[in-house]
Inverse folding.
């Protein structure tokens, strides 16, 4: 069984679900995850990459946590991504958030530095570390760090 819990910082919504059991992903659980990780600005829902969910689960196992991931940003629609790019620095034009393959998170009770180290050790995609804002970005793109 693989269980994940999320708290949407912008929506106040929570979800704890077993998304994988007995060798299979659970469609209803995946739908619930897609919804909580939706673009909170447009309410657009996108299928979240299964590899991203497995990455989050693996990170959680490395930090011995069963806590709740606080989500700063999950899926971002192309229009939301462009609006953020126009007003903020560091938003990629071809962001993996736009295809459901990236998430910005923190895990209360786990120092962000430790969370970053766990993600880097897995070598499963990109890891961005933002200590001043107390979160990390993880994605299932090519392995890279910033």
């Amino acid at each position: 069984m693989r269980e994940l819990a999320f708290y949407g910082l912008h929506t106040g919504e929570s979800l704890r679900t077993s998304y994988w059991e007995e060798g299979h992903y659970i469609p209803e659980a995946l739908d619930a995850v897609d919804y909580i990780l939706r673009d909170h600005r447009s309410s657009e829902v996108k299928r979240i990459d299964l590899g991203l969910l497995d990455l989050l689960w693996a990170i959680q196992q490395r930090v011995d946590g069963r806590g709740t991931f606080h989500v700063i940003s999950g899926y971002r629609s192309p229009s939301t991504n462009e609006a953020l790019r126009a007003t903020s620095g560091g938003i990629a034009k071809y962001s993996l958030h736009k295809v459901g393959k990236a998430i910005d998170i923190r895990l209360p009770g786990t120092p962000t530095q430790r969370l970053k180290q766990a993600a880097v050790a897995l070598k499963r995609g990109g890891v961005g570390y933002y200590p001043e804002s107390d979160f990390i970005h993880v994605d299932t793109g090519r392995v890279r760090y910033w």
Q: What stands out?
A: The longest strand covers residues 14-21. Residues 71 and 105 are 5 Å apart (CA to CA). The chain has a mean pLDDT of 96. The chain is about 30% helix and 25% strand.
